[in-house]
Write a structure and sequence with these properties.
Layout: E1 3-7, E2 10-16, E3 28-32, E4 47-52, E5 60-64, E6 81-87, H1 95-98, H2 103-108
Antiparallel strand pairs: 1-2, 2-3, 4-5, 4-6
């Protein structure tokens, strides 16, 4: 049941996510087909990214929001890469948290 979608210049593979809702609906995770991103690239998906430096430090994780432009490293400059580990919804952009109230909720208030 894998599908692909295009967001800008990124092709995405839609797969079942590791954190599936057991309740009324299930969520899907989006994983970028592009293996790594470089400084100056604009991020299509908010999430946790693994940062891999040239040699001066171990890999580490950062949170990046969709639309952010990835920075260069102060030490290894452009020899740093970013790899998406987990996509996340930014709360103000999440439909259930920031979208309009449903009719049943609006009527009960």
């Amino acid at each position: 049941m894998n599908r692909t979608a295009q967001i800008g210049s990124f092709y995405l593979r839609i797969l079942p996510g590791p954190f599936m809702d057991v309740g009324k609906r299930s969520k899907r995770q989006l994983f970028a087909v592009k293996k790594s991103l470089s400084p100056g690239d604009q991020v299509a998906l908010s999430g946790v990214y693994r940062v891999v430096h040239a040699e001066h430090r171990h890999d580490h994780f950062v949170i990046v929001l969709a639309g952010d432009v990835l920075p260069a490293c102060r030490v290894c400059a452009g020899k740093v890469t970013f790899h998406i580990e987990q996509t996340l919804d930014y709360a103000p952009h999440d439909w259930d948290l920031a979208g309009p109230l449903s009719n049943s909720k609006a009527a009960s208030e």
